[in-house]
Amino acid sequence: MNTFESWLLLIIIMIPLIGAAVFIFMPKDREEMIQWSATILGLITMVLSIYCFAAYNHNDGGFQFANSWIWLDLPSNPIIGQQAIQLNLGIDGISAPMIMLTGIVMFTGVLASRSISDRPKEFFVLFFLLISGVFGVFASLDLFFLFFFYELSVLPMYLLIGIWGSSTDFKTFIRTKEYGAMKLMLYLVAGSVLIWISILAIFAESGLGTFLIPALSEIDFNTTFQLIIFPLVALGFGILAGLWPFHTWSPDGHVAAPTAVSMVHAGVLMKLGAYGIIRVGMFLLPEGAEQWAPVLLGLGTVNVIYGALSALGQRDLKYVIGYSSVSHMGYVLMGIATLNVIGLSGAVLQMFSHGIMTALFFVVVGVIYERTHTRDIGVLEGIAKKMGWVAVLFVIAGLTSLGLPGLSGFVAELLVFIGLFQTYPILGMLGIIGAGITAIYILRLVAKVFFGKLNEDIWNNMVDSKFSKQADSNYWERVSSVVLAITILVVGLFPFPFIKVIDTGVTEILAAMAGSL
Amino acid sequence: MESNNTLGLHAAWIIPSISAVAFLIIVVSMRIAGYFYSDRTKLALLAPIVSITAILAGFILFWLVLLDVLNFGGGSISMNWLVVGLTEIRWGIFVDKVSVAMLGLVTFISLLVQVYSIGYMKGDKHFEWYFAIHALFAAAMLTLILADNLLFLYFAWELVGLGSYLLIGFWWEKRSAAEAAKKAFITTRIGDVCLLIGIILLFKATGTFNISTIFHIAESGGISDAILNSSILLIFIGAMGKSAQFPFHVWLPDAMEGPTPVSALIHAATMVAAGVYLVARMMPIFELAPEIMLIVMIIGLITFIFAGSMALVMSDIKRVLAYSTISHLGLMMLCLGTGGVAAAIFHLIVHGIAKALLFLGAGSVMHSIDNETNIWKMGGLRHRMPITAITFFIGAASLAGLPPLAGFFSKDELLLSILHDGQYVVLAITLLGVFLSALYMARVAIVPFLGSTPKHLEQSHESSSIMWVPLVILAILSAGIGFLILPLSSTYPGWAEFIDPSHHFELEPWLMILSIILALAALIFGWSVYLRKSVSAKQIIEFAPSFYKTILNKYYIDDLYQWIIDKCVLAFGNLVALFDRVVINDKAVDGSAISVYMSALKTRVLQTGYLFTYGAAMMLGACGLAILWWILLD
Amino acid sequence: MIELTHFQVLSGLLFAIGLYGVLARRNAILVLMSIELMLNAVNINLIGYSIFMNASESHRALGHVLIIFVITIAAAELALAIAIILRLYRNKSSINTDDINIMRW
Fold first, then answer.
1. Residue % of chain B over a pLDDT of 90
2. Residue B323's closest CA among B295, B359, B348?
3. Which residues from C are below 8 Å from B615, CB to CB?
4. What is the rounded radius of gyration, in angstroms, for the C-alpha atoms of chain C?
5. Which residue of A has its CA nearest to B565?
6. B343-349 average pLDDT score
7. Helix A425-445 vs helix A408-423: angle between axes, to the nearest 10 degrees?
8. Which one of B118, B501, B516, C76 is most buried, by most CB atoms within 10 A?
C-alpha cells in the first residue's frame, strides 16, 4: 500500500477538524469566503471518501488503509505494553460504505446550509467538528478512540440544535429547540455512559492491556461476561440507533434541528449506533450477541411497526420523517439480529440507503420550511405547482422509503427480509407489512402536501417574501438533493459493487462469531 | 451472461431496454432543453418521437422474437445481479409462446396509444413528462412479461405500479386525481406485500427465485404442502391486487381520473392483465394446489358477476368501461381457475385490443365534447363522429361476444374450458355473466352514439386523424384476430394447441349457439330499453329499488374501505402517535426528568452557601472515610 | 536525632491549624492562607516518609517529586484564588466568605 493510502483515513478525519480550526480564525463578516471554503472542503472530503470506498479491495477483505499512531502506553501493561492506546485507523467492508455515506451527507449538508445567515462561521466550525467525529468513529480500530470520536460527534449536536434550531408550537404541545437539544444530549450521554462502562469492562476483562479491536476480537470472553456486557453495549449504541423505547429523542431532535444537522443526525449519527452494535457488540462479544439476538430482533420489529404507525399519526413533516427513521432503523436492527450473511449485509446496506434517503428527505423538507415557515401537513396543499424540484425529489425519497424496486431501499430491505425468513418467517412478514404501512403514510403525505389544488391566497400569505418570486429550491439545494437522488438510484439499480464490499466485512464478523462458538 | 445463443433472446432483452433508455433520454433532455428554451412548446414533439421510436423498435424486434420462438421454441438468458454470501440473485429473461404473445400485445397497444396520445394530449403543460412515464411504463411492463425469476418480476411489477401511479395522478392539481393515484398505489400495494411474502417463502423453500427451477422443485415434491399452499395463495393475492379482483377492485374505477389513453393502455389492456399473466405463468405450481385453484375460480366468478352488475348502472362512460374491465379480468381468472391458460391468455389479448379500442373511442368522444363523461348527456354522436362510432360499435360487439368478432371466439373458448373442467354450476353463472356483459356493452354503445343529438353537442366533430387511425387499426384487429383460434394451416394447429400442445382445437356447437343467443338477447333487450324505450328502465329499477341503490353505491364497498382506513388504520396510527407522545415521551421520559428535578428541589437546601458548611462536610467525609478504611483494614 | 514521629507531629499540628483556619475564619485571604498551611503540612509528611521509608533511592525520590508538584500547583492555585478574591472585592466590597453566597439555593 502506498503512503497516500495509509494516510488517507487520517486525512479524511483531519480535513474537517483542521477546517473547523481554520474557520475559527476567519473574519466573521466574510460569510461568502467561509461558505465557499466549507463547500470546497466538503467536496474534497466527499471525493476522498468515495475514493476510499472505491479503492477498498474486496478480494483481500480485512482492515485496509490501516495505519497507527501511538498515543499513550501504560507502564504497568502486562503483555503488549507499548500500545495501550493508539490512534489505529483502518476500514473493513462495513465501515467503508459508512465512510462514503458520511462524505456524501457532509457535502450535501454543507450545500444545504449555504442559506444559513445567522453566525455561519460558528455553524460550520461545529458542523465540521461533528463530521470529523463521525469519520473518526467509523475509521477507528481502537475502542478508546472510537469512544473519543463518538463523544466528539455527540457534543456539537447540542449547540447546533440549541442555537440554529427552531422551536415549534403545536396545537396541543410545544417543542422548543432547547428542549430538543437537551433531550438529545441527555439520551446520547446516557448511552455513552453505558458504552464507556462496557469498553472499560472489556479492556479489564481481556487482560491484554490494549484497546485495539482486532486484538480484543481474538479473545474468548467467558459467557457470563458476554451475557452481562452485550446488553450494555447494545443498549448504549441502541439508544443512538433509535432502539424502541429509547427513540423519542430522535423525532424531537429532528423537529428542532436545522436542515444540515437533521441530515447528519438521521443520516449518519443513527448509523453510528448500529455500527457500534456490529463492531463492538457482535465482533467482540459474539456469544452475547447470539444469546441476545432474539431480544434485539423483537425490539427491531417493534421499531418497524410502531415507528410506521406513529408516522401515520403525525401532522408535522419532520415528525413523519423522524418516525420513519425510527421505523427504518428497525430494519437495520432486525437485519443485525438475524446473524446471517444475507440479513446482516442487508442491514449494512440499509444503513447506507437510509442515510442517503433520509438526508434527501430533510433537504427538501428544509426547503419547504424555509420558504413557507410551516411543516403542517394540514396547511400545505398542492405545493408541487410552486416547487417542482422539491416535489419530484420528495417523491423519489418517499418511494425509496416504501421500498420501490430500482431504488436503494428495496435492495436493502429485500436482503433483510430474506435473511429474516431463514430463521424467523413470522417476523419477516411483519417487516414486510411494515413496508406496506410505510406506503400508506408516505403516499398520504405526498397526495396531501404536494398534489391537489394550490390555494393562491393561502400560499401568498404563507410564503416568505424573500422567496415569493421563486419558491423552488435554489441552485445549491438542487445540487445537494440531486447528488443524493443519484446515489439512491445507483445503489438501487447496481447494488452488486456495494454488496461485494459489505459482504467481505460481514463474512469476517460472522466467521469471528462462528469461530468463537 | 449465459445464453443458448439465439438471436431472438437477445432481441427480447433489448425491447424493454430501449424504452428504459428512452425514458432517461426524455427526462434528461427535458431538463436540459428547459435551460435553453424558455418556450418549451417548440420542443414538444421531441418526447413523443423518442418514446414512439423506442416502442416501435420494440414492436419490430417482437417479430424477430416471435420468429425465433416459432423456430426454436424460446429459452432464457440471465446475468448476475447480486451475490450475497453463497446466495445468487440473478436477472434474466425467459421467452416462450405465452410471453411472446404478451410481448406483441403490449408493444402494439403501447405504440398505438402513444401515437393517439400525441393528438389527445396536445397542449398539455406536462406533455413531455407524459411520454416519459409512458416509456418508463413500457420498459417495466415488458420486463414484467419477460422476467425469468420471481424477484425480477416483482421488481417490474412494482415499477408498472409506479407508472400507473404517476399516470393516474398525471393531472395532480385535481384533488380527485391525487386521491385516486394514492388509492390505486395503496390498494395494489396490499397485494404486493402479500406477493413479496409469497415470493420470499418460495425462495426459502427452494433457494432460488428462478421460475422454472421452482417448478422443477415443486413438481418433484421438494416444497412442503403448507409452504406451497400459503405461498401460492399469497402470490394469488398479489395478482388480485394488480388485476383488481374482488375485493381489491376499488382502485380501478377511480383510476379513470388519469388521461383516457392511459386508461386504455394501463388500466384496460396491459398492467391490469399482469395479475392474470402472473397466474398463467405460475400455472404449473398452481395446479399442484387444487384448493387454491378453487379459490382462483371463485374469486374470478364473484368478480365477473359483481363488476358486471356495477357496469350496468354507472353513468360515467369511463367507469362503465372500467367495471367491464374488472369483470372481464374476473372472467380470465375464472378460466385460469379451471386450468385454461390458453383460453385465458387469448381472451386477455382479445379483451386488451377491444378494450383499448373502447377507451380510445371514449377518449375521442370526450376530447370533442369538452371532457364530458356522463353518457346520459351524450346522444346521436354517430352523426358527428362516424369513425369513432363505428369502431366503438365493433369493439363493443366483440366484447359482447357477437360472431364473427374476436370476442365471440375467445368467450367460447373460455366457456369450453369451464365445461371441460366439469364445473356446471359455474358454467351456468358464467352464462348469466355473459348476458350481463353483452347488456352493458349494448348500453354503453347505444346511449352515447345512437338516438337524437342534444343541442349542446351540435358543435362536436370527428377527432383528428392521428387519433382515429389507431382506432381503425384496433377495430380491424378486434374484428379479425379471433380467427387465430382456428386451425388455419397445417403448421398452425389453432391457438389452444399452439400454446399448450396437449390441448386440441374443439367446438361445442350447443354452447356456441347458447352464447350467441344470450348475446343477441342482451342486445335486443338493450335496444328496447335504451333506444326504443319500449321497456322502461324506471320500471325495472322500481322492481327492486334498494338493490339498485346498493349497486349504484358500488355495494358500499368503497365506503367500507374508507371507513376502515379512517376509523381503524388512521385512528390506530393516531393512537400510537398519541401513546408515543403522552406515555413514552411525557410520562416516561419527561416524567423521569421531572422526578429528578423534584428531588433536586428537596435536596438543594444542603447547599447553604457558607464556606464553613462545605469545609466541615468535607472534613467529616474525610474522617469518615479514614475510619471506614481503618475498620476495613482490621 | 529527628525521627519520623517528629515529622508526623509537626505535620499533624500544621494541618490541624490549617483546618481550624479554613473552618473558622471568615476572611477569604485567611482561609486561603490556611489552605496553604494544610498543603505544606502534607508536604512535610511526604518528606518525612520519603526519608525514612525502607525503599530504593529512586522510589524514595518519588516523594520529592510529588512535593514539587504540590508546590507548583499550590502556587498556580494561589494565583488564581487571589485573582478571584480580588474580583470579588471589586464587586462586593467585601471578602467575608459569609457574604459570598451567590451559589446558595
1. 7
2. B359
3. 19, 22-23
4. 17
5. A440
6. 88
7. 150
8. B118
Q: Say whether B340 sits in a helix, a strand or coil.
A: coil
Contact A313, B573 (CB under 8 A): yes
Q: Write the pLDDT tens digit of every residue in B524-566.
A: 888 888 777 777 777 777 777 787 787 777 788 888 888 888 8
The 10 Å CB-count burial string (b at 16+, else e) for B200-223 is bbbbbbbebbbbeebbebbeeeeb
Q: Could you report the per-residue pLDDT of C17-68, keeping only the tens digit for each?
A: 999 998 888 888 998 999 999 999 999 998 888 888 777 877 788 888 889 9
Contact B431, B514 (CB under 8 A): yes
Q: For residue B581, how many C-alpha atoms fall within 13 Å in the half-sphere facing its CB?
A: 20
> How far apart are alpha carbons A335 and A297 in whole angstroms?
8
| Domain spans of chain A, in order of start | 3-516
Here the ipTM equals 0.88
- Dist CA A449 CA A318 (whole Å): 13
Residue of C nearest to B608 (CA): C104
Q: Rounded distance, CA B7 to CA B74, Å? A: 10
Q: Which three-class secondary structure state does DSSP give residue B76?
A: strand
Q: What pLDDT, on a 0 to 100 scale, did the predictor assign at position B96?
A: 84
Q: B522: how many CB neighbours lie within 10 A of its CB?
A: 22
- Kindly state the cell numbers that stand for B337: 381457475
Nearest chain B Cα distance for residue A317, angstroms: 14
Q: Give the pLDDT mean for C88-103.
A: 82
Kindly list the partner chains of chain B, i.e. chains with 3 or more CB atom pairs below 8 Å.
Answer: A, C
The pair phi, psi for residue A66, each rounded to 5°, is: -80, 145
Residue A382 CB partners (closer than 8 Å, separation 6+): A450, A451, A452, A453, A454, A455, B173
Q: Between chain A and chain C, are at least 3 CB pairs below 8 A?
A: no
Start-to-end CA span in chain C (Å)? 54
Partners of chain A (3+ Cβ pairs below 8 A): B
- In the three-class reduction of DSSP (H, G, I as helix; E, B as strand; rest coil), residue A211 is classed as coil
What is the C-alpha separation between B530 and B544, in angstroms, rounded?
19
Cell of A221: 470472553
Chain C within 8 Å of B621 (Cβ-Cβ)?
A: no
Phi, psi of B73 (to 5 degrees): 85, 20
Confirm if B54 and B19 have CB atoms less than 8 A apart: yes
CA gap B398, A485 in Å, rounded: 47
Residue B43 has pLDDT above 80, yes or no: no
Give C36-101 as a 3 state SS string: HHHHHHHHHHHHHHHHHCCCCHHHHHHHHHHHHHHHHHHHHHHHHHHHHHHHHHHHHCCCEHHHCC
> Could you tell me what percentage of chain A is helix, strand and coil, using 3-state DSSP and rounding each to the nearest 5?
75, 5, 20
Q: Which amino acid is at A67?
A: N
- Dihedral sign, Cα of residue B326, residue B330, residue B336, residue B341: negative
C-alpha cell at B301: 366468478
| Per CATH, domain C4-92 is 1.10.287.3510 | yes
Let me know: does B91 contact B79? Beta carbons within 8 Å: yes
| Mean pLDDT to the nearest integer, B100-108 | 89
A258: cis peptide before it, omega within 30°?
no
Q: Which residues of chain A have pLDDT under 50?
A: none
